[in-house]
Amino acid sequence: MQLESIFFNPSFSTPLFMILSIVSIIIGLSLIIFGLVKQKKFKKSKVATGCIVIGSLIIISHTIQIIVRVM
């Protein structure tokens, strides 16, 4: 028995991960826009603040992933 067969880890291709990261960044932007619009209508909305924070975290994490994959 070889070690490669025990620890076989299938991986997707790099272009697929790039596409998924770009789609996630677009989702993050839409969450931020939704949160800003909702916060403009309703002051001190927890849902709006949560959308803005989660959208920002998504954008930051996937931007870092793209930078790491490119280098």
Molecular structure report:
The chain is mainly alpha-helical and 71 residues long. Helices cover 80% and strands 0% of the residues. It is built from three helices and no strands. The chain has helices spanning 3-6, 14-41, 46-70. Helix 2 runs antiparallel to helix 3. The two termini are 35 Å apart. The mean pLDDT is 84.
Provide a short characterization of the protein structure.
This protein is mainly α. It contains three helices and no strands. The chain has helices spanning 3-6, 14-41, 46-70.
What order do the helices and strands come in, and which of them pair?
Blueprint: H1 3-6, H2 14-41, H3 46-70
Alpha carbon gyration radius:
18 Å
Average of pLDDT: 84
Strand content: under 5%
From the helix content, strand content and strand pairing, which structural class follows?
mainly alpha
How many H/I helical runs? 3
Transmembrane segments: 12-35, 47-68
Keywords: Membrane, Transmembrane, Transmembrane helix
List keywords for this structure.
71 residues; 0% strand; mainly alpha; 3 helices; transmembrane helix
